[in-house]
Predict the 3D structure of the following.
Amino acid sequence: MNTASLIIAEVPYWGQSLLRVLGGLVAVLLPAGTIVYLFLFKMMSFMQSRLGPMEAGPYGSMQLFAEVGKWLQKEDIYPARADKFIFKLAPLIVLASTFLLVVVVPFGPDAWFTNFEAGIFYALAVSSVSVLGILIAGWSSANKYSLLGGLRAAGQLIAYELPMVLAVIGVVIQAGTMNLQGIVLAQNSGSMFGFDGLGNPYVLTQFVGFVIFMISVQAELTQAPFDMPVAESELVSGYMTEYSGFRFLIFFIGEFATAGVFAMIASVLFLGGWAVPFSWFGWTTMDSVDNWMNFAGPLILFTKMMVIMFLVMWVRFSYPRLREDQLQRFAWKVLIPISLVNIMLTAILKVAF
Amino acid sequence: MPKVPGLFKGLGVTLGTFARTVTQGANTVQYPHEKETPPIRSRGVIALHEGNCTSCMLCARSCPDWCIYIEGHKELAPPRRAGGKPRQVNMLDRFDIDYALCMYCGICVDVCPFDALFWSPEYEYSEPSIADMLHDKVKLGEWMETVPEAPELEVGADKKGKK
Amino acid sequence: MTLLGDRQQLSYIASQAADARVNLELETEGMTLNIGPQHPATHGTLRIIARLDGEQVVWVDPSCGYMHRGYEKLTEVRTYPQVTALVNRIDWLGSFANEVPFILAAEKLMGIEAPLRAQHIRTILFELSRIANVSLFLGDLGVQLGAITPVFMAFRDREYVLNLIEGATGGRFHPNFDRIGGLKDDLPAGWIDETRTVMKKLRRFCDEIEDLLFGNEIFQSRTRGIGVIPRDIALQYGMSGANLRASGVDWDLRRDQSLPMAWDKVDWKVWTHPDGDSFARCWIRLQEVRESTRIVEQLVDTIPAGPVMTKVPRIIKVPEGEAWVCTENPLGEMGYYVVSQGDLGPFRVKIRSASFNNMSITPWLLKGVYVPDIVTILASLYFILGDIDR
């Protein structure tokens, strides 16, 4: 028990709840904003020989606030034949799934919202909740394009849920736990063939799993090359077509916040999460980790998240999109068999060593 | 050398562009802060040299969308030589070009027999209201200062063929 | 009679082939999807009414005319210089190429020919407008297929070409530089050197696009085997340009026709592709940009000295007669049938624009494809709405 947990313990329950809500908002919105500015505005522009937003603030850094202000001013329009209650509910469901997802991500030895034993299982389960929001958004818009987009989204997200789960199983087998803290511990205190200078980040031992996980994340986030649900050139932004103003903003935040949270989960699963290899400082167990990691940990996790997001966005800006049937074929005929083989090999090696 | 899969080549192209933009700067011109000079021949705006205009209406008649409005009247000017007859000159009352209609084809400049119309590369004359795009002869005359000299011609050009 | 019989047989085969692609698995209630007239995939205001079974298109009807500007009627009340300014706007991306066939038709009627130097410069500007047009296609293709980067590369490098056109003619989009009997003016000094550097940039752009898009396996899987137009059917629907050459027909009006232009003076190649699918059409256009840069580079080295304008009267009256001149424009065969009755303006002009005929194949071609492939096929057919509707 160290000081951070002591402070938490002395705060009354409502205060704790408030802190957690604030922490959750920061954990969701800060990465989302950074991702949008750094990658969507700047990196994309640089990859296309342009500068991106430059006027709002120094180097356009206040652009996102300007955009939010613009969206807030816009009229809240919904189609005449839309199912209004569901139409208004849909973006909230999408955003809620992001907040549900972030609660299991560990940011430091004691900096976590919850510490589930079955953390990764929970994360994969609630990440599918957003499908519901997207599906009802597509249905309630009373628009054929939105309907096609929503159905595509549902088909795609369900198809890619499976390889994602199967890719994670390899990590779970190797770590021996479904607790995300446990997975961090296993990676950083482990060793590769007796060499413990790097710990044992699973991106090296579970490389196949990492690639499959990243492809699934790409599909789950509906980023190119898997962005058929929002395909702006054929479905005119799919399920988001009829949304304007604040509701569109919620979808937008949801998209990039989910991207950030998924990148955090990926860095927890494969890059060692919030920690640096424990051997650098002579730590052995979770309790021996110094207290300053509670503050350095989020930064380290943030950095790793940015690396993952760079990969996601790089692919997004470079590739054309697949077709719906090709995507399904790719998921069922390529990714799932490979991930099954990966699980088998991992299990055999785990038993053998 | 084994063939690099196209997927990775594509990533290389975007990363290369990224690096080039970071090191050599982007192609963007930050317009209000920095400006490009348009080429000499650029058809930005039509300037009027009022002294040359005889209000012959050729430009107004040849304009494909009738965006030139000319009104004039005849005046008697004092004779050139002492004892001669008074001359009749055409005075230009109104010479308006509606730039909201103009399609910048340049036919009026070509047909003008007295060299009263010129192209100027000036381009910053947008207005908040479309009705304000109708510019009169005073404004057109101000643009006369921005008209550049005709450019040198490329090697091999027949210079005598030009007017 | 036999020809008609062949045609009927071919059209029967075509309809059978189109029907065979429609695969109604379940007798479900179809959905009518109205693509356009305000849809990003239609490059403007084309409307496509598609009846879907799931995501498969069962029946399709392209409906054009939303941008009809009545050019053929307008030409009857315009003088020749005014018509030149008008026809610029037909295919607005390759506008100089629209002027050339009209001017050539008028010159044919008057029995004059532009000086050699003017012919050379015309050909250079023609090819530059082809590059400006097709390079935008290459970028736009990426957007239609979901890749966002190529279009910015296309705009970046097309800018150089537009700067060249502006430097020579004064207009970026609508040069209006052609005159009956030659050109409005000669090239400004330093233009040729600039052209050489820009052509190098354009070739690098082609390489980049090839690496980024054409080599990409996802792009290939999206375009290969999609929207196959067999040779016979391409001919039957009167397609032209790169769409026809992609179906294996070795036909290029720049080479196969003798016009007072400079194409026969340089060494270049007509590319054909046997497949006839979307990939072939896109690939042919990529190669055409490269060939165009080669043509321009060779032509700027060999511009003959001399005037750019023959002696023509100040007020042009074209003698009575009829003339048909067509050229290989960026989009395909573009021709003008000019009927003159000796007036200041033409009596009647029939405009044959490439996109209209290329578009006419869509009811056959889109039958039986999936919704995402509609976009691929429309993008690869490459039409410009101004060129369809005129």
